[in-house]
Specification:
Blueprint (H helix, E strand, L loop, with lengths): L5 E4 L7 H10 L5 E5 L20 H5 L5 H4 L11 E4 L6 H10 L3 E2 L8 H10 L3 E7 L24 H11 L1 E8 L2
Parallel strand pairs: 1-6, 2-3, 2-5, 3-4, 5-6
Length: about 180
């Protein structure tokens, strides 16, 4: 049997490669990926300032990353499947990539309402949802132990109603918590 849902507690965002790739293939690209993260994770080996894979995993899932990792992805994501939520510390090449490819970026300030997220999911056309939650998404006052804490995130209590509402409106097939 094949799993229909995956819940992952991972180390770095790099642990997302296989679960997201698996679910995207399993659901024949009928998957929107909400990337709750202060960072875009959209670098390539050539654009990454750090060279760390956890900053390249989403770009790899789009089929554009390091070939040694991309070979594990039978069905790469397409750009309209990806929605960055809470991103506020993008590298210049990531910002350019999002702008050029129409990848929505929903700021922490825009999360006072659920409408921007729901609209972006509906524009993707997907009926299944994968939620990636990097702990640096939160305000460091609430969660200072994230691997790469970044100021400007939302408070932890503010995420609960968002996740509950998404679960009521969409078929959540995957959820991860990373970067502790």
């Amino acid at each position: 049997t094949q799993a229909d849902q995956i819940f992952l507690i991972g180390g770095t965002c790099g642990s997302e490669l296989i679960p997201v790739a698996y679910l995207n293939h399993r659901y024949r690209s009928d998957l929107a990926v909400l990337w709750f993260d202060a960072h875009g994770d959209l670098n390539t080996p050539g654009s990454s300032p750090s060279g760390h894979f956890h900053g390249m995993v989403l770009r790899t899932l789009l089929g554009e990353g390091h070939r040694d990792f991309a070979r594990f992805i039978p069905t790469p994501l397409v750009k309209n499947q990806v929605i960055l939520v809470g991103a506020r510390d993008l590298d210049a090449p990531e910002e350019k990539y999002c702008l050029k490819n129409g990848i929505p970026i929903i700021s922490p300030e825009d999360l006072k309402e659920l409408r921007p997220i729901v609209s972006a999911i509906k524009r993707s056309g997907a009926s299944n949802l994968y939620i990636h939650l990097d702990l640096d998404f939160f305000d460091p006052l609430d969660f200072p132990c994230a691997l790469v804490p970044t100021t400007g995130g939302i408070r932890m209590n503010d995420l609960d109603p968002i996740l509950r509402n998404l679960n009521e409106q969409f078929n959540v097939v995957g959820l991860s918590v990373d970067e502790y």
